Amino acid sequence: MNSTIKVAKRTLLNNRRLNYTLPTNTKLYPAQWNWDSAFIALGYSNFNLDYSFKEIETLISGQWDDGMIPHILFHIKDLNYTPNYKAWNCGRKISSSGITQPPILASILRIIIERQKFSKKEIKKHQTLILKIKKYLEWFIRYRDPKKTGLISILHPWESGYDNSPLWDKSMSKIKIDSKLSYKRKDNKIVKKSQRPLKIDYDRYVTIKNHLRELNYDPKKLYFKSKFNVVDVGFNSLFLKALKDVNFLLKFIGKSSIFLKRYILLNESKLIKLFNSRKMKFKNKDLKNDTSIEIPSITNFFMLFADLNNNLINRELIKGLKKYYKNEKYFFPSISSKHKSFEEKRYWRGPVWVNCNWIIYQGLKNKDKKFAEIIRKKTINLVEKEKFREYYSCKSGLGMGAKNFSWTAALYLDFKLNRS
Ligand code: GLC
Questions:
Q1: Which residue ranges make up each domain of the chain?
Q2: Which CATH class is domain 3-417?
Q3: Which of 159, 163, 238 maximizes ligand 1 atoms within 8 Å of its Cβ, making it the mutation to test the pocket?
């Protein structure tokens, strides 16, 4: 067996705790993260299906009564992380953060189930999981689009999963930092300061979080009162695909949901309007400040993952993507290197992330096989050269951030062992 495959498996197993897996084995992220766990479950499905389902079940065990699955579950009350479980002060049976992350879990569960070629009876065994994910997606529709606009809002940059992306700069600049803030960062002691979000960003993250806590994380209030309320193209694309995938899975357990089906149509029609194919530009909406955001981010191309029912737009998206990374030795940079906000080494402001490449690959594989295959091979080569790092430079390929990063190992396995 290829030795990198062996090391990838070992990396996941070493990061595994009781029925869930840490994003890395350093102290950087000592808990279970929502979308990390979904990618990790996919990785396990290539060699240990039991661990794969355990990972998902543990994540879902943190679901709140209202349906939300938090972005972090603190199974162990480790105080080494900021903000830790006390600072969030929430969660039900399991301590957690009070916000969520992209619900890619739905799409990953579908891939796992389809690849296993489960019979209807076997799918039924996972009925509870499917219904809980359905409830999670309904939570978004109910509380993150209470005005029924057809687009879902995120209420904290951390909810996007691409924390310090320049996408949020304008909205974040409007946030007045709480003068009584008191917290101690640990992340920039573990990874080079020059690669992590700035102090001013962190002060604002914590300010928004504290305000959500003051509102008791009441989902009915947060949308209207949060200091940050943005409709993001990438997030809505992942959400739309999640809806489609849950809708698909529901059929196997003899259920359906008109509520979700209607939202699929509405969400798709509204999402498409955020893309201007003539100017090749995407528009995020800052609902709090009633402005728009136009930043060339790889996450805009998650629209390909949404499997839009529109070949013309899909073709335009592919054209745009080819232009986006043109002349880049390693791709995809999280922010176009031609944009003024690009920073080669700072977290979500430029580096290449393997999960983004995987999402784009999945979106392309049924639209442009040749291009998809290039992405698959280039990503594999980059990881084999630099090992399982958190992110990589698009200029030199240099691996940066955490080492032994779980989703990089998991998605490497997935790239290497599957073409569908
Ligand atoms: C950071 C990333 C986020 C990820 C988490 C754990 O916050 O921005 O996407 O889920 O770390 O790896």
A1: 3-417
A2: mainly alpha
A3: 163
